[in-house]
Amino acid sequence: MIRAYIAALLAGASAIGLLPVSDAPPAEFFRVWKQPVPPGPRITPYLRHQAEQAWKEDEARQEAWDSIRDEASLLKTQDELRQKLLQMIGGLPAVKTDLQPVITGKIAMDGYSIERLIFQSLPGLYVTALVYVPNDHAGKHPAVLVPAGHASDGKSHYQALSQRLVGRGYVVISWDPIGQGERSQFWDQKAQKSRYNLICGEHAVLGNLAYLAGANLARWEIWDGIRAVDYLLTRPEVDGERISITGTSGGGTQTALIAALDPRIKLAVPSCYITALPMRMSNRIFADPDSDPEQDLFGMISSGVDHPGLLLLMYPRPVMVAAAVLDFFPIEGTRKTYRELQRLYARFGHGDRIALVEGYHSHQYSPENQQAALDFLDHFNRMPVRSSLPPVKELGDESLRCTRTGQVLLDYRDARSLVELIREYYIEHKTGTARRLATEYYGEKYGGVKDWRVGEYRGAPPKDGEIAWESAGSAKVGEVAIDRYVLHHSAELEMPLLHIHKPGARDRKV
Predict the structure, then answer these.
(1) CATH classification of 71-426, choosing from 3.10.25.10, 3.40.50.1820, 3.60.110.10, 3.20.20.120?
(2) SS (H, E, C) 15-57
(3) What are phi and psi of 397, to 5 degrees?
(4) Mean pLDDT of successive 10-residue segments in the chain (510 residues)?
(5) Closest alpha carbon to 252 in 341, 145, 108
(6) Which ranges carry the Acetyl xylan esterase domain (predicted)?
(7) What are the residue boundaries of the structural domains of the chain, listed by start?
(8) In 108, 214, 354, 413, which residue has its Cα 20 to 30 A from 447's Cα atom?
């Protein structure tokens, strides 16, 4: 029933070619809604419906977690979440190739040095990084990864945090994420800038390609972080049993994802990222709506991962969540997620390994939050307790540049763009069988939709398994009729629809 109805309506769209070209019909002939759509962002019925579905899935996940009564069940849940996360990102590369690290320069600072490093996380995929090394070589030092957030200058933007960490005795590595800093994938050499931008713009383009290939941009970001750990383990001054990670904003995203999938990282402090995704869904259209695909993993909520799942993948390792009360990542979601994980950690005797720090400010890794994070790191890394942050001497971008030209794709003839690697990923993973759109549509998500009942709208929201049509008027242009409808379905959803056709003997009523 439903298939025939939709087919008839959509087939009529081909009749649009019958409309006279000379005199364009007035706009109201095509306007289904009686009131104009208001300008600007708004919560549409569709978004409200999606948010309600997300909350239902979140509640189902919480109920499942509440039933966990022994650590074996918790670890089983953890393993299931890990497999789901790997599936969402498209898996990880199977082989760790030679890093081929090269130190391109060294800066002497007060009590430490900064090494400019370039390594290859995959053959031809060059990563520009800074390594902060204490001058004290008497023993091995704990190490910290500092993935960069969404800043056009990448790693150098977060040098203050790195300097404070090295001042506390840590070896630190911070690198440019793909599409930022010296790793632009769409660099216009003549204009000396990215064709998009080095904040979220390149991530959006690369991430959309990754979606189409069946993967996620996070796959390659996580791999950069895993290979950064591999590099740290080659350093004689690094204690491989004391490796931590902390970053903010996009660096907080990477912190959570890398720590979730690399157990060699013993402690994590994600900043300005952790919340509850149903809440972030509801405010994102108004606050920081930029596309950032590595945060938007397909099926993240429905699969039960969400942000609580990312933190659960770190159990029983120490975790601190650093948050900003006035952030666009809702603080209410941060507190909710933290409480969930704190209960689980405490249930199995590790309540002292999880903490939350809040700063009353907007989206930033504030000095007070950094102080709390460094104290947390010091405690679990068995470092001396300090009451203040080390001083910072920020350097210019030129001083911290690893490449000669400022871009790896210009410096290295054998450099490969991520666009190439995504294409190769697609070719390697594509199936020989074409997937039909109808099969996808009538699959698990809308099981039984072919049997839904179709009837005229009577003023009441349709029940489950029903679609109600409502006539919104009709117009005629020459021999062509334009019929306007509103389709009501899924309780509160409405969809405008035009049936453009040439009336005649072939009309059929469905």
Answers:
(1) 3.40.50.1820
(2) HHHHCCCCCCCCHHHHCCCCCCCCCCCCCCHHHHHHHHHHHHH
(3) -55, -40
(4) 45 50 79 84 81 92 95 97 97 98 98 98 99 94 98 94 97 98 94 90 95 96 99 98 98 98 99 95 80 90 93 98 97 98 97 98 97 98 90 94 97 97 95 72 70 90 89 91 91 88 66
(5) 145
(6) 114-270
(7) 1-30+458-510, 71-426
(8) 214
